[in-house]
Amino acid sequence: MSVTINIPQFLQPDTDEVKVAKVDGGTVGECLNDLVQQFPQLKPQLFNNKSGKLHGYLDVFVNKKSAHPEGLGRPVANGDELHIINIIVGG
Predict the structure, then answer these.
(1) pTM
(2) Alpha-carbon distance 64 to 80, whole Å?
(3) How high is the pLDDT of residue 36?
């Protein structure tokens, strides 16, 4: 199953400036893991080393809708488009 991941500008230095990647997977997590297989330097940028979960300051959108509440377990279908978003927080 082919899914497109749009890579945000802040991660593109870790993908050799690739902006869009084709990945395989049945869930958001599987797709991100496939992306990390293609670009291993992304792993610490995306995932917490201790928990293996997506960093709290990141969100993933599937076809312009947040993957929450399922998160990494959210199913994806052939042709879906993922966006990795850096969440801006403040106080």
Answers:
(1) 0.94
(2) 10
(3) 98
